[in-house]
Design brief:
The complex is a heterotrimer of chains A (327), B (563) and C (136). Chain A has 327 residues and is of the alpha/beta class. Helix content of chain A is 51%, strand content 13%. The chains are: A alpha/beta (327), B alpha/beta (563), C alpha/beta (136). Chains in contact: A-B, A-C, B-C. Strand 3 of chain A pairs parallel with strand 2 of chain C, so a sheet runs across the interface.
Chain lengths: 327, 563, 136
């Protein structure tokens, strides 16, 4: 049962046309409004989503300092060499205290600045607790509708919010290094569940072989031995600054996309799972914004919080009261 | 209240409020007990602070290991420091005029600074950055340019120092060979330290750390073997310091670079005693007088011990470090620039009491523009006053034995060794490539700026005692006519030169660079065939898998087979 | 990023390597709640305009310590107008000589922050030119 979309007005249709035409400035403007949580552009995003789905979206994450930006820079060059257009959404964590941020990922890709076939956009995570994934998802709709062949969605970290972001991608690349027990960190963080391709960067560093082995073991553990059709995530060793291993990495990424093409049921399952996550997030977000206080006034709500802190009440009781008020 | 100097009316007496404000303005209060780099100091020092000192072990006499007190026993009585002035702007003929002027003023040594394009081995006809040619330095792209600049100068008789890293040495050698000079008599110096460039704002695109480091070793190897009288300013710690590190950081990063370079050369069969005597440490002299003196002393001690204990040096000439100093440009202030005369004087005095072998005093208008001739003259006079009137050169290490200075020396040394260990723990090249070193520098600058904005660090003219109604400073201007001629001449040379001969040289250079052999003989050959620095370095880049033009505007212009 | 976040693109044009000022400024602006998109050194005017198009910042800031800023600024503004982003406010910092200010302003530069300028002055400019409040 298709849910109908509110009609777009003339202005909205104009935006959609501009995006599909690849008008860089208009696309950028739209993304700014999305980042600012401007609800008036939501209908446009809705229309773009419905018309989209053509770009290959590759999510890239990993611990800080793993060398992701350098790898992304090299990958862009390879895609361009194949005459494929590229969009990059580089999501950086923000400063926790003041809400400001320095988004510096694109410096490492600076050589592509003068290339019209590459669109690079930086996005900060600030002030969007949970809303970042939504904004990234909406921005992806824009980039997808622009007609870019490849979209690289780059973020940093191995936490839940990063996982939520890269879940929008059809292929998730996790970049790690031999140092700092990354493999252990990843296992704990759950990022291993999400990765389709793994790159072990700085592969010339001490401990690389051990790290590859640990990674392989962890990945094997999650693989289903009975499913012959399942994708087995490859681990590619790279040395990003020298470009070593980049061709193999590209091959692995191409391979995963090809896998989807030859396994449409698996692809559909993945897409359904993504859709579910996205929808759940949106609904949860919407519910929360609309009903954070339930039917309580602001003053009563504040009083409920006081009661909790002073132990006159408890969280379960308070939540039940709000939920009851909703029905 | 402004008064009209032409008015005959009597100036009314200042009000009580005016007076109070003026007195506040001239009072001097202690605003800081830490050194400029942040080392806390005591109200007084005494023998108790030096209980652990052993004179022979920690100081030695001047001219004796570990050379804390100076490189030579008699210091300036036996050899006066070289008074240098930096000159460089516009086309080669413009700078040649500047050199003539400097020599007339009494400068013993010439130091030529190159424009940013030439420093980055970019040709002056680059389509995107041609506007930068001749600015901030002399535009030098070919051997012919050098011939114009140095017309009448025999480089085996006159010591010309070059404030540049990339390509300048091969250019000078190419010219000398073309003039049939004996390279073994070549006089002069330059600064072959590429890693410092990489840290001082030249990104990986312009100077890749690994290629830069290897080229430094290539240059030193060639020079040590062929031009033993040529001095090699490595590390170039002046720009490291200016980029943003404390005094101890200048030593630490400089030592990391020096040690890396010496290890690279040892791997090529050149031992420390063959190389180190040709090296000179290029240093700054910043605004904290006592800290700088301590820095120079700590530096010599660390160098001597490192050469002997870690590299097995047995040659005093390898252990006693020679220091070339340029007073700090960054510490000078744009507002009320004449105050910079006082700053540069104190910094120059610190350098002399610190025992340097060559000194360039910054011109007072350095923050504003390329130094005017008047400012350069005053910089020269500053040194002459220090030499002849102040007695700065009379006695070796005059502050040696001061409880304060010896304690500060120990502290700067300890901080430097700690940071050095941290950098070497990561590995210098890695620490550069992954941004660790730059991160330290950014953090340092950030901290200073915050202190300035909060008034916790007073800089006269910047956040206190600001001048009112200052007229805009005078600017150095030169006639751009020569630059236009220079660029036309350059383009003409590219048409007139023997293209076939050049192509062969470029091909040979490409192959040598591909095999990762020492690139210098082939670079010199190509320059002698009228290649430009952009073409030569661009070929080396291409052979190393990098784009010809770091800005990716130009493509490799030579039709040679490439693997 | 909330609607009120000021977004500022910072970078350098030309072969100038003195980036410590702009790096320090980036950190100080971040502390005050600004989202800084950092382009670094060695940008061509064309590259900077592309970044401007894609990042859609509220303000563009350039830092210069060489004497060629008038030339590069003019070139940049021309390219910005040709690309349809001539309306993005431009501020310059670094060693800008007072004698050049009238010409720069006539060209369209909105803010000039020469030696001795403080972060507060720059923040006030950002607030005035974007109409967004200073968060902290």
């Amino acid at each position: 049962m298709a849910v109908s979309q509110p009609d777009l007005d003339a202005q909205g249709r104009d935006w959609v046309t501009a995006v599909r035409r690849g008008d860089v400035r208009r696309c950028a403007r739209l993304i700014t409004r999305i980042e600012a949580r401007d609800e008036t552009v939501t209908p446009i995003v809705q229309a773009l989503y419905r018309q989209g789905g053509r770009s290959a979206v590759i999510g890239i994450t990993g611990p800080p300092g793993a060398g992701k930006s350098t790898l992304v820079d090299k990958l862009i060059a390879r895609y361009r060499a194949r005459s494929q257009s590229v969009a990059v959404l580089a999501v950086d964590p923000a400063s926790p205290f003041s809400g400001g941020a320095i988004l510096g990922d694109r410096v490492r890709m600076a050589r592509h600045n003068a290339d019209d076939g590459v669109f690079i956009r930086s996005m900060s995570a600030r002030g969007m607790l949970g809303g970042l994934a939504r904004a990234a998802g909406d921005a992806l709709c824009v980039l997808d509708a622009m007609g870019k062949d490849v979209i690289l969605l780059e973020t940093v970290g191995v936490g839940q919010s990063e996982i939520d972001i890269v879940r929008h991608a059809l292929t998730v690349l996790i970049v790690q290094t031999p140092a700092g027990g990354d493999a252990v960190q990843a296992v704990k963080a759950g990022i291993l569940e999400v990765g389709d391709v793994f790159a072990l960067n700085k592969a010339d560093a001490p401990g690389a072989d051990r790290a590859v082995a640990a990674l392989r073991e962890a990945v094997e553990f999650r693989n289903d031995p009975h499913d012959a059709n399942a994708w087995r995530p490859p681990i590619v060793q790279t040395q990003a600054p020298d470009g070593i291993g980049v061709d193999a990495l590209l091959e692995a990424l191409d391979g995963h996309l090809a896998h989807w093409r030859t396994h449409p049921e698996a692809l559909r399952r993945r897409r359904l799972s993504q859709a579910r996550s996205v929808l759940t997030d949106l609904v949860r977000d919407g519910l929360h914004r609309r009903h954070e206080r339930g039917g309580e006034s602001a003053a009563r709500f504040a009083g409920m919080l006081d009661d909790l802190v002073d132990r006159r009440s408890d969280p379960h009781a308070a939540a039940a009261r709000i939920l009851t008020g909703l029905t | 209240m402004a008064t009209d100097p032409d008015s005959l009316a009597e100036t009314p007496p200042p009000s009580a409020a005016d007076l109070a404000a003026r007195i506040e303005d001239v009072s001097v209060k202690l605003s800081r007990t830490a050194t400029w780099s942040g080392i806390e100091t005591q109200a007084a020092y005494g023998p108790g602070d030096l209980k652990h000192h052993d004179y022979a072990r920690d100081s030695g006499d001047p001219g004796q290991y570990p050379y804390t007190r100076g490189a030579y026993a008699q210091m300036y009585r036996s050899r006066m420091w070289t008074l240098r002035n930096i000159v460089g702007y516009g086309a080669p003929e413009d700078t040649r005029d500047g050199i003539a002027g400097a020599l007339k003023m009494g400068t013993a040594g010439i130091d030529v600074v190159i424009d940013t394009l030439s420093q980055e081995a970019i040709d002056p006809d680059h389509p995107a950055f041609g506007a930068d040619a001749g600015q901030e330095g002399c535009s030098l792209a070919t051997v012919r340019d050098l011939e114009i600049l140095l017309a009448g100068i025999d480089v085996t008789q006159t010591d010309v120092a070059w404030h540049s890293t990339m390509m300048i040495y091969p250019l000078v050698v190419a010219m000398a060979l073309k003039q049939n000079r004996d390279l073994s008599k070549l006089l002069g110096s330059h600064m072959p330290d590429h890693l410092q460039l990489r840290l001082a704002g030249w990104s990986e695109a312009i100077v890749p750390a690994e290629l830069g480091s290897r080229t430094t070793a290539d240059c030193i190897e060639y020079s040590v073997k062929h031009s033993p009288r040529w001095a090699l300013g490595c590390p170039q710690a002046y720009d490291l310091r200016e980029r943003g590190v404390p005094a101890s950081g200048e030593i630490a990063i400089g030592m990391a670079i020096a040690k890396q370079t010496l290890r690279d050369l040892a791997a090529r069969g050149l031992g420390v005693d063959q190389v180190a005597p040709s090296l000179a440490w290029v240093s700054g002299s910043d605004i904290d007088f006592f800290e700088e003196v301590a820095k120079f002393r700590a530096l010599r001690r660390i160098w001597a011990r490192t050469m002997r204990e870690q590299f097995g040096s047995q040659e005093p000439r390898a252990q006693r470090l020679r220091i070339a100093c340029h007073t700090s440009g960054r510490s000078l202030v744009y507002a009320q620039p004449l105050n910079n005369l006082a700053r540069a004087t104190v910094q120059s005095l610190a350098a002399l009491l610190g025992g340097v072998q060559a000194l360039e005093t910054c011109a007072y208008d350095e923050p504003i523009c390329i130094p005017t001739e008047g400012a350069r003259e005053l910089a020269t006079r500053t040194q002459q006053i220090l030499a002849h009137e102040v007695g700065a050169a009379r006695t070796a290490d005059p502050l040696g034995g001061s409880y304060y200075v010896e304690s500060l020396t120990d502290r700067v040394e300890a901080d430097a060794l700690a940071l050095l260990a941290k950098i070497e723990g990561i590995g210098l090249i890695k620490a550069i490539e992954d941004g660790t070193v730059e991160g330290l520098m950014d953090e340092y600058n950030y901290g200073i700026q915050r202190e300035i904005e909060r008034g916790e660090r007073i800089v006269v003219g910047v956040n206190k005692f600001q001048p009112k109604n200052e007229p805009p400073p005078q600017r150095f201007k030169f006639d751009p006519a020569h630059m236009a001629v220079h660029v036309r001449r350059f383009r003409q040379l590219k048409t007139d030169r023997d293209a076939t001969l050049l192509r062969g040289k470029i091909d040979a250079l490409y192959r040598v660079a591909q095999r990762r052999e020492n690139s210098h003989p082939a670079m010199i050959d190509a320059l002698m065939a009228d290649a430009s620095i952009g073409e030569v370095w661009g070929t080396v880049r291409v052979a190393n898998g990098l784009p010809y033009d770091p800005f990716r505007v130009l493509d490799f212009p030579f039709d040679i087979p490439r693997l | 990023m909330s609607a009120a976040t000021i977004r500022c693109l910072l970078g350098m044009l030309g072969t100038d390597v003195h980036s410590k000022g702009i790096r320090t400024l980036a950190q100080l602006l971040r502390d005050r709640g600004v989202e800084v998109i950092y382009l670094g050194e060695h940008n061509t005017a064309a590259g900077m305009v592309n970044a401007l198009l894609a990042e859609d910042p509220d303000v563009l800031g350039l830092s210069f310590s060489t004497a060629t800023y008038v030339h590069y600024t003019r070139e940049l503004l021309e390219k910005m107008r040709a690309a349809g982003v001539g309306d993005v406010p431009l501020m310059l910092g670094g060693l800008i000589h007072r004698d050049d200010e009238p010409e720069l302003r006539a060209m369209g530069v909105r803010g000039i922050f020469g030696p001795g300028s403080t972060t507060l002055q720059i923040l006030q400019f950002l607030r005035d030119v974007t109409g967004k409040p200073l968060p902290v």
